[in-house]
Amino acid sequence: MLRVRERAGNDVAALMAELGARARAAARPLAVASAGRKSAALLAMAEALEANKGKILAANAVDMEKGKAAGLSNALLDRLKLDEKRIAAMAEGIRAIAALEDPVGKVIAEWDRPNGLHIERVRTPLGVIGVIYESRPNVTADAGALCLKAGNAVILRGGSDSANSSAAIHACLVEGLRKAGLPEDAIQRVPVTDREAVGEMLKGLGGNLDVIVPRGGRSLVERVQNEARVPVFAHLEGICHLYIDRSARLDMATTLAVNAKMRRTGICGAAETLLVDRAVAESHLVPILKALAAAGCEIRGDEGVRERFPSAIPAKDEDWRTEYLDAIISVKLVDGISEAIDHIETHSSHHTEAIVAEDAAAVERFFNEIDSAILLHNASTQFADGGEFGMGAEIGIATGKMHARGPVGVEQLTSFKYRVHGSGQTRP
Fold this sequence. Notes:
Blueprint: H1 2-8, H2 12-31, H3 35-51, H4 53-69, H5 74-80, H6 84-99, E1 107-112, E2 118-125, E3 128-133, H7 138-149, E4 153-157, H8 163-180, E5 187-189, H9 195-203, E6 211-215, H10 218-227, E7 240-244, H11 250-262, E8 271-277, H12 281-294, E9 298-301, H13 303-308, E10 313-314, E11 328-334, H14 336-347, E12 352-356, H15 360-369, E13 374-377, E14 397-398, E15 406-407, E16 414-421
Helix pairs in contact: 1-2, 2-9, 3-6, 3-8, 4-8, 6-7, 7-8, 11-12
């Protein structure tokens, strides 16, 4: 990659075109690589991450220092930070991906026609995937591993704030490819931080890029969705809601509210709005808000909330459509399940919503009438994660309605083709 870096400063367009061509060339042998060889590469990657954790932590320390100097928010610094536990989690995530069933070549459906033709619908790799992300260096490992398992080549473009961490992680992925005898260009990292590089990816790299996955803030995702000339798997924001129904158990509602908001405030699955049924305002609202406040959360409430919890800050209209990614939550009293559904459908980004309830009819309405990618019952919104879904990891959460929706894991990174077997049939 040294030769590429030398060219980058002079001609980013040429650099990106070269990365695209290399990825396309790597994608062909990768598409037919055996499940065993791909798994061997993934396991070698996990070992390399653990063996090189000192280098990764040193690189991350540089990024963290620069991030603090640049004034990054606590939420962004949390996304950027790596420690031994998070590196171990990356390695285990890759091992979990290696253990998944290989989707490539899997027969999804098959049937026979009256004329004797036997038709199969079979999973096939998408080809070359571009991943554009900010802050989170672990995306380097997750995206690289998932794309490899699904038989795709990938071009990774991380943010400048995580450049050193991502480079150290990427080196471990390349080591795994090398040990398994797979093309090293199967997982490439854009070695420059110029915004022009993103622009070239959005153009499709001369037809070499098949799909783009953006992971980052609103400005990044909006740019990708507005300018991309290739399909996009993305969500704009994670404005996630937690609704406390009148049938909810107080102890469960309190525990889930604190976890959904405060476990990690900077992830897209963190709850940003809490809706409480007015019927249990006197019994449930204050204990839940006290627990949130005790955990360090700022409460922004409507008039009914502030009457019962005077320390709450008055909520403004924009609070209902704000992804805080911080220890802040907007709280509203609603007149039952109908108003809760109306509020969510009006303000949600269609990412993740949860209901706490013992009433099966309320849960059924919530699940049937809310059109978000992930819906949970009596569980924290922080489970909106591919790893928690048993996918090993995810490349992102898609909130669109075409192809992939919800956690984008190995299966979602494949398409399909039809194989038709005949015995000499001709069409009359």
